[in-house]
Amino acid sequence: MIRKSNKYKVEKVEGLKGGRGYVTIVNFFEMEEFLGNGRLFGKTIIKPGSSIGYHTHEGDQEAYYILNGRALYNDNGKEVILEPGDLTICRDGESHSIEVIGEEDLEFIMLILYN
């Protein structure tokens, strides 16, 4: 299977998980392509001044792989600076948030899989 980039479903979500501003999500997979194993695989773009709010995962886990920009990441209450090449995993029952640091867009691959 091949999917050309102009065929991706693109969503703009305002206030994601109580965050500031909006987040753009470029979905690489359609829901049925997960075969019941997950719900999101794509690229996320967050503009400066925007964020994904602090939230807890229940029944799934989420990974971020940072491609571009810098972020302040809250990992279960511990804040860490993320840069390109860094990876995070928020497991079932854990909590996290992410916000842009600086003037450059934050871009990362996001994967959510069910337990």
Provide the CATH top-level class.
Mainly Beta
Number of H- or I-type helical stretches: 0
Uncertain ranges = none
Cα distance, first to last residue? Answer: 26 Å
Describe the structure.
The mean pLDDT is 97. This protein starts with 8 loop residues before the first strand and ends with a strand. The protein has strands at residues 9-14, 22-27, 38-46, 51-56, 60-68, 70-75, 78-82, 87-90, 95-101, 106-114. The radius of gyration is 14 Å and the shape is globular. It has 115 residues and is mainly beta. The protein has a single domain, classed as Sandwich (Jelly Rolls). The strands form two sheets. Strands 1-2-3-10-5-8 form a six-stranded antiparallel sheet, with no helix packed on it. Strands 4-9-6-7 form a four-stranded antiparallel sheet, with no helix packed on it. The protein has no helices and ten strands.
Note the topology.
Elements lengths: L8 E6 L7 E6 L10 E9 L4 E6 L3 E9 L1 E6 L2 E5 L4 E4 L4 E7 L4 E9 L1
Antiparallel strand pairs: 1-2, 2-3, 3-10, 4-9, 5-8, 5-10, 6-7, 6-9
